[in-house]
Write a structure and sequence with these properties.
With 329 residues, the protein is α/β, with parallel strands linked by helices. It has six helices and 17 strands. It has helices at residues 34-45, 78-90, 155-158, 174-185, 203-212, 305-325, and strands spanning 24-30, 50-54, 96-98, 102-108, 111-116, 121-129, 133-135, 151-152, 166-170, 189-193, 215-218, 221-228, 232-239, 245-249, 252-255, 259-261, 291-293. The strands form four sheets. Strands 1, 2, 3, 4, 5, 6 and 17 form a seven-stranded mixed beta sheet that branches. The longest helix is centred in the C-terminal third of the chain and has 21 residues, at 305-325.
């Protein structure tokens, strides 16, 4: 099943005003994850004329089965936390444009123009880019062909469909091991395939998976091919030392090899790193005055929900200070 099926229903914003193409906003926030929603709350508290532009709400948080490091909760389901975030933002009546990804942001004098995939055009005095990251693909034959038919990127979304089946998990970090845990809960037989030497997941996660005794570990192997007919039926992996390949019969493969910043729309207005993260300073300012970045799409270290939320708040306050300094409000 395609991950997009589980995007948060934008109807939670149905009582909000529609974002207007004929208005100049003090602030437009691009994104729908914790950084964006935190920025929206802080911008609204400063009584800014602001709006949200996002493809959907939730971000990676909505794909997480259990979060045990959000202050105030011993454990909380990712979707439940996203729903609480969203209800909080909704209470401010912030106009939102949902369902249309941003394709370009341009600077026009002292203003910014935001263009969406459905050719909506919105104007603002300041921008906060808080678009997060997306799953990095393997880019191997069969990956695209079997997406939603055995190939998956979200265990929270899709693990139940692999109950009692044989599954490969590509990756060696926290996300890969968390996916293995989710699959073990539904009785799947799991093989973890790590493309580098040495597992990168936190020790407590590694210990939990190893103690299950139900996971096969293939270190220093890479996935080279996904085979199947109507559904994926096998995964071919190659030993990176010997070059020898072997086929693993499997009904599914979960790909957890890292994330790519959703920064393509901003690269004409902000400096980015070689990996695509937006360069920001300690006040969330980018290389362009009036353009701010927050959360996982930026160079801020430690990609955590609580850090993203804090950065969103900081970006909104920095945008407010900028507007004051320019006499815009």
């Amino acid at each position: 099943m395609d991950i997009e099926t589980f995007a948060l229903d934008a109807s939670v914003f149905e009582e909000s005003k529609e974002l207007s193409t004929g208005e100049t906003y003090d602030l437009l926030i691009i994104g729908g994850g914790p950084a964006a929603m935190s920025a929206a709350v802080y911008g609204a508290r400063k009584t800014l004329n602001l709006g949200l532009v996002t493809k959907d709400f939730g971000g990676q948080v909505g794909e997480t089965s259990a979060i045990d490091n959000w202050l105030g909760f011993q454990s909380v389901n990712g979707r439940d936390l996203v729903n609480q975030f969203t209800e909080h933002v909704r209470a401010f009546g912030i106009p939102a444009k949902t369902g249309g990804a941003v394709t370009a942001v341009s600077r026009e004098g002292e203003l910014f123009r935001v263009t969406t995939v459905d050719e909506g055009r919105y104007v603002a005095k300041t921008i906060i880019a808080a678009t997060g990251k997306r799953h990095r693909p393997l880019n191997v034959p069969g990956e695209r062909e079997f997406l939603g038919r055995g190939v998956a990127y979200c265990a929270t979304c899709d693990a139940p469909f692999f109950k009692g089946k044989t599954v490969v998990v590509a990756g060696g970090g926290n996300s890969a091991f968390t996916t293995a845990v989710d699959l073990l809960k539904v009785g799947a037989a799991v093989t973890l395939v790590n493309a580098v030497k040495g597992w990168q997941a936190d020790e407590y996660l590694q210990e939990r998976v190893r103690q299950s005794g139900a996971v096969r570990f293939l270190d220093n192997h890479e996935v080279s091919l996904i085979e199947g007919d109507r559904q994926a039926t096998a995964v071919v992996v190659k030993n990176r030392l010997s070059g020898n390949a072997k086929k693993i019969d499997a009904q599914g493969i979960f790909i957890e090899i890292g994330l790519v910043p959703n920064s393509e729309a901003f690269r004409d207005v902000a400096d980015t790193t070689a990996t695509g993260e937006i360069n920001v300073d300690c006040s969330c300012r980018t290389s362009t005055a009036g353009f701010f970045g927050a959360g996982d799409v930026t160079t801020v270290p430690y990609k955590q929900i609580i850090i993203a939320a804090g950065e969103g708040a900081k970006a909104a306050l920095s945008a407010y200070d900028y507007l004051l300094s320019r006499g815009f409000i």
